[in-house]
């Protein structure tokens, strides 16, 4: 099967490319490199021993994108490309809507024109908005609490409309919970630019001495220890979820929606203490005010993916921390 991977040098995209290549899929990858490094291309080739075509292309460049469809005939598209920083999306909504929505529309226009009718889309648990109960199943009400979440929700709706207009399409919408961890080799992992927004890269940067201490955003939530609870999922388990969606849903018309999470919630302090065990040092932290827009807890009901895709996350918290730490220690400055 020949697959186009958009945003394939990014964190989740690159790990998915490895899993695809290792299972014999033929890949074409493009990325604008706005939030990733071209070095990832060679790292993925070296880890897998497999070759693939890479295009440096911005999905807003409709002509550049069309060239990729002219050069190749795809069976399916796995669509990771997009901007993802929640805070930045509040400051720059136009940039986020333009990039994520207009970019996706360019992609879908070409998929229609070149008759590529299978897509797997990176959605997010953020589409559940301000959830009132957990665990969260796919039929929970949807809402957006920031422009980034708005783009995910709009793209989900665009994809649903696309299927209504042409019911030969197979659309898989995968709603990720909180991806962490890294490739077991330590050569590939999350490579945030500047000060990280997300918990795990922040913790590992404190542990390695690049940042002074972790700010724990609130300790009075109605959770086990008062800190926020999330469903952290190993990025390789997440990558394998995409393989399952391709295996089970390619050529099966419909809109197939799945939560990809472990179904287990861990608090900020549980993550911190597990990382302390793994890196064998104290990680300084201070409790500060809650972060605007954060919810107390968020974890998945992941039973639909198990039932319909035969997918279940296999890697536990200790391994997630070990792999994140190996990546951070081997690459103290990321790939720069
Ligand atoms: P990432 O930033 O590492 O990867 C996204 C890639 O898309 C980057 O390499 C970036 O350069 C590329 N890109 C952005 N705009 C582009 C454009 N216009 N044209 C071409 N390439 C472009 O992020 P990630 O964590 O790997 O996320 C992948 C996808 O999963 C994103 O759509 C993200 O919104 C979604 N997602 C991520 C998380 C998370 O916590 N990491 C959670 C839920 C959903
Ligand atoms: C996790 C927990 C924080 C940083 C975000 C997006 C979501 C999705 C995944 C893309 C929370 C606490 C964090 C820190 C802390 N992305 N925290 N100190 O907010 O659950 O989800 O990433 O789709 O849309 O919103 O992830 O890693 O930022 O936070 O105490 O320095 O860690 O309050 O409880 P979040 P996160």
Please specify the SSE layout and strand pairing.
Layout: E1 2-6, H1 11-22, E2 26-31, H2 39-48, E3 53-56, H3 62-71, E4 76-79, H4 86-91, H5 93-113, E5 118-124, H6 147-165, E6 170-176, E7 178-180, H7 199-207, E8 214-217, E9 229-230, E10 232-234, H8 235-249, E11 254-260, E12 266-267, H9 268-279, E13 285-288, E14 297-298, H10 303-309, H11 317-330
Helix pairs in contact: 1-2, 1-8, 3-5, 5-6, 7-9, 7-11, 9-11
The chain binds nicotinamide-adenine-dinucleotide and UDP-4-deoxy-4-formamido-beta-L-arabinopyranose (WQD).
Q: How is this structure best described in words?
A:
The structure is a single chain. The protein is an alpha/beta fold and 336 residues long. It has a domain at 2-180 and 233-261: 3-Layer(aba) Sandwich (Rossmann fold), CATH 3.40.50.720. Helices cover 40% and strands 18% of the residues. The protein contains eleven helices and 14 strands. The chain has helices at 11-22, 39-48, 62-71, 86-91, 93-113, 147-165, 199-207, 235-249, 268-279, 303-309, 317-330, and strands spanning 2-6, 26-31, 53-56, 76-79, 118-124, 170-176, 178-180, 214-217, 229-230, 232-234, 254-260, 266-267, 285-288, 297-298. The strands form four sheets. A seven-stranded parallel sheet has the order 3-2-1-4-5-6-11, with helices on both faces. Strand 5, helix 6 (147-165) and strand 6 form a beta-alpha-beta unit. It is globular and about 55 Å long. The two termini are 33 Å apart. 47% of the residues are buried. The model has no long low-confidence stretch (mean pLDDT 98). The structure holds nicotinamide-adenine-dinucleotide (NAD) and UDP-4-deoxy-4-formamido-beta-L-arabinopyranose.
